[in-house]
Amino acid sequence: MSIQTLSMSEVLAMYALSIRLDRVSSLVSKNAKKHFLDTIACILGGFSSESTRAVSNYMSNRQYTSESSVLMPSMIKTDAEFAAFINGVSAHALDYDDVSTAMIGHPSAVVVPTALALGEALGSSGEEVLTAYIAGVEVCALLGLSLNPRDAVNGWHSTSTIGIFGASVAAARLIGLSLNQTVDALGIAGSEASGLRANTGTMVKSIHVGRAAQKGIFCAKLAECNIHASKLIFEAPFGIGCAMSNGFCEKALIDAIETGRSEFTSGTLVSKQWPVCYAAYNAVEAAITISEKNSIKWECIDHVLCRVSQSTRDMLPYDIPSEPLQGKFSLPYCIAAALRWQNISIEDFSDDRFSSLIGFLPRIKVETDKSLMNSAYLDGRDTTELLIVMKNRDKYFERVDSPRLSSNLLERNKIASCTGVDFSSQSLFSLENAVYNIENALSLSELLNSIMACFENIHYQEANL
Question: What is the DSSP letter of 348?
Fold first, then answer.
């Protein structure tokens, strides 16, 4: 059957169902495990966020089947859909989870919670869970190439509006749906896709992610019950392409599949080293570079001028954030934190640090410069220029076209950053080992036990503070 005669849902379903762990390259497998572990780290760090606590309180008043673990110290059990929801909220709560410049969003924060929750409920093997995760992320990237940047420009939060399709595919793989049922799951997901960028900087942004993970399971289960949907959900006149973008670029999707493109080796899937919006990374790097090169003293800075492209400006709407969460989407706040501490950490969004920085922000002016490179998320390049003027009138300038991401950022360090657990801890070694050998596991029990051990270590350290 020629790929040109198929609907885009059929092409995606055939592609996703054809992925086998023994057929992907060793690099794809290795990088997939790295991003899987990175997402677990973000869940470990995000479980205590206001967003996760709120949705957990919502869940506590309801009765559910005890089949999947909510990743928090109590490791309570609920049904797979709700476990995926809460874990998805945790995964994105810190905005520390990986980012795809093809998708213009965060695929793993959606797909990992889906694969973990449903995989545990079904008793899936580690190989099945990892393969489902790979398939889900690849579908997210393919759809990003076909829908963006217009999808994001139109105000849709791609992490959820595209992520739901990756979650649906991952769930379809684990349930064992047929080709036609997987096509139906994608069609159902098209009517469930939602999430608006207007909620950037609020707790609802992470709820988008949890809902996409939850609804991925919901869509696959409806398809399993023989609920039928349009096969043309992407390219139809009233489909996803027209509703969310300026049409659906079929060629981009087909070309990527036919050339063997993988999101895990393309360089477009990035593990984040700072817990802020990726659009701020160039400015953060510029601030840290200037500060370290010139041993700048924070108290001697008179003012700062930051020039960015329109796409960066649109991603970071808060010049003067009113709360710490908005600071993650504020160029002035991110620049101030980077200048003050030559780094940005989770602690920089505590109430105390927020209060210590907020008075400095009026000194930082952000300008939009139409002459600057303006391709941002699509290829990871988006020029930022930073000028720092000292009180003695000395000036320091730095231009960054794309962030130089740390090549030695160990997963263990990321987990330590998210949890506060010493990265030499045995529990972190056990977690690493469980993920990097997941394809040999008959179930997820070893991985879940290692996560539980990390939570126990967190509580032990807190008790001894």
Answer: G
Length of the chain (residues): 465
DSSP 205-240: HHHHHHHHHHHHHHHHHHHHTT----TTTTTSTTSH
Residue 409 CB coordination number (10 Å): 14
pLDDT digits (tens, 9 = 90+) for 326-371: 999 999 999 999 999 999 999 999 999 999 999 999 999 999 988 7
Cα distance between residue 34 and residue 52, in whole Å: 24
C-alpha closest to that of 337 among 197, 321, 106: 321
- Catalogue all structural domains in the chain, each as residue range(s) with its CATH number: 3-270 (1.10.4100.10), 278-400 (3.30.1330.120)
Buried-state track 113-147, b at ≥16 Cβ within 10 A, e below 16 = bbbbbbbbbbebbbbbbbbbbbbbbbbbbbbbbbb
Contact 207, 38 (CB under 8 A): no
Distance spanning both ends of the chain, measured CA to CA: 64
pLDDT in tens, 215-251: 999 999 999 999 999 999 999 999 999 999 999 999 9
